[in-house]
């Protein structure tokens, strides 16, 4: 489950709706922006919004409860989020554990999120499981409280603790939110504590607390339900009445009025962060709540201050004074109050006093220069594209409909949002700047690496946070499934047993067109007219493979530099040209290729491709930008040293690929390799960017003829094919060894376990992917079910095999609480050792059904359709490979699965990488019985 600050503001234009039942479309906006829906209210007060979308055989369901951490009381913080976890356990008419396990097995996905103001539960399932999801979702909503047991309560406490350790305690800058909330909001204000709350409060929670919270806030009248997708409106209305109509209304929940805050004076605080490697400054100024008329101008203000290369904060901090690789300023609004935030993660060793002075200078420049109409035009063009991107999936539609209905009282409020944003003027922006930002008190945090207090802002006061002491004795933290609750089922006039599946909708490959340019560039396309958008990707073979070990990171720096202007456009002019189209263009290096990607309105495709051509063929080779990007890369690489997951990943790949393979070094390089890179290295690499063996993929609202005509301009791109260097794998792979990396005081241990397996072109690749599903495929996998659901050791545990032309690893990944490190390792080891022997005919059937059904939703978005084309071109797959893969899956027998597992997943061939607290865990992990080697954070053996 996710902790959310707020749901993403997904740009939709929806029709307005009144309380009475009605169908409606947006009549007062351009018809191409309209979307139909129907809203009605059940007798119990549940407001229901239905939207039909037959483009894919899937359905999204989102239930919004109008209760977040702002309804909690001091001493009982974190409860809204904790209750979200509890809700996913058991309910009266659904088998134990089914909520987390069955939905993935139906080919669906599910999750929940809690933030300050609300809690949302959501699922996306194939159409055949539609009534099943109404059954399971309504049972979770209205029929779960009687099933709560002491064992379930204690287990979820451990899971939430693990979530906090992973997201807060074991993460750089993880405590900053707590510091800001404590000092921005007065004691007792609903935003004065974090969403996850205080762990002592959580530990003290009782079953009576759970029941009281449910009774008070989980009534039908305190919620909204949205169902979007391949549905029939009239049939769905009857199903909703059946499954949700008997849920109790609940007591009336008194609405909370806005509670904006003011500061009498500024507060400056510092904190020494055990994980941070870079100093970070944040300034937070109280502003206005969500849906306030001034939020739109404040959002645009943030973009104007920091969102482009012409922005004054960027100019001063990044371009001129070179204090940081970037800067952000943005408005963050919630139900009761809002904040305007300045955030700068500075370069290593930068004094945060200089950052504060630079922010002041940037704001002064903004005051002097004002707002240009051209910048407003650019931002609004970008928002127009975002409008359509927000309607590209049924889940995004469901999110926006349900949020605006519950918090604005109108599922179509985004129509008003779009109009109000479009109406913002330069004078509006200057007015909100002067009213809310200029000269106003703020809360400022200086978070600095441990031992670098001299970098904090002068005269800052030490911030206090509560830090958990993870005891090595775990007796009081051991949990289990426990006994099922004893209760009488709630009476119902309907049969609330599991409904049957509908007709199985199998995925059918979309129609794919192909073409080629005279210069050798292959083109693959899928026409899709759901929204007037186009997404594209040009893939050029090479990437990190063409780096040298001594100068790894050249490809990464080159792709970054090529977006910093062209021969005829400065970096700011290129950025503005892209923005005025409402387009995005990105370029990046991956392990085996370089990508130029983008998205735009279909009517802007020709102009967008013209800019792509200019970027590709007329690099600027700007020395100033090269130096800035190199510094930015070094800052990023330094920051990577603070992340236990990154430390584990880097060591893992270094061990697997050995000294002679380029993949033993991250594609971004290291601090040492980055330092050695020169502009000449980038120019030398540039000659590898040729159209031979490259491919262009295009998906969206554009025909083959229109796309081909626009792409023909790329025939000016010339160059011979490039021979990729041969890479050598270790003759004697590392195996059956545990490697330990010390991160002092870590509250969790990061585990990476695995071995090199196979290439994506290996005939066994699909079968290994299928075979992994039972052990590590999502929340229904054995790893997740055992380590999280049964034991409460982790927030999540998964396994997968990577896709690449090179031999790729099979990897088990998880982060477990520190004092459960050995127990977790023992469980994973035993699970891997017995996987083949314990694989059953039931597992064969389950894998088949799960994967066949999941394909119906796996390729809904434009990005997912783009992935189909990329797989076809890179791995030389047939156009209907998804259908042939399905046939391969159906044909697999139990013996096939066992053979694959024994061939590729032999546990004794695997290595174990553990990143954690040496003082408490090093001696313990030796009890696993494997040779133990200690490494430093760079993956070097400590002798």
SSE topology:
Elements: E1 2-3, E2 22-24, E3 37-41, E4 47-52, E5 58-65, H1 79-87, H2 98-105, E6 109-114, E7 119-126, H3 130-142, H4 150-169, H5 176-184, H6 199-203, H7 207-217, E8 223-229, H8 233-244, E9 267-273, E10 280-286, H9 295-306, H10 312-320, E11 328-333, E12 338-345, H11 352-369, H12 373-389, H13 394-408, H14 413-422, H15 426-437, E13 443-449, E14 461-462, E15 513-516, E16 522-527, E17 533-541, H16 554-561, H17 571-580, E18 584-589, E19 593-601, H18 605-617, H19 623-640, H20 644-657, H21 671-676, H22 679-686, E20 695-700, H23 704-711, E21 738-742, E22 748-758, H24 765-776, H25 782-790, E23 794-801, E24 808-817, H26 821-833, H27 835-838, H28 841-858, H29 862-875, H30 881-891, H31 894-904, E25 911-916, H32 918-925, E26 932-935
Parallel strand pairs: 1-6, 4-8, 9-13, 9-14, 16-20, 21-25, 21-26
Antiparallel strand pairs: 2-3, 3-4, 5-7, 5-8, 6-7, 10-12, 10-13, 11-12, 15-16, 17-19, 17-20, 18-19, 22-24, 22-25, 23-24
List its traits.
Cytochrome Bc1 Complex, Chain A, domain 1, six-stranded mixed β-sheet, alpha+beta, globular, eight-stranded mixed β-sheet, disordered N terminus, 26 strands, 4 domains, 943 residues
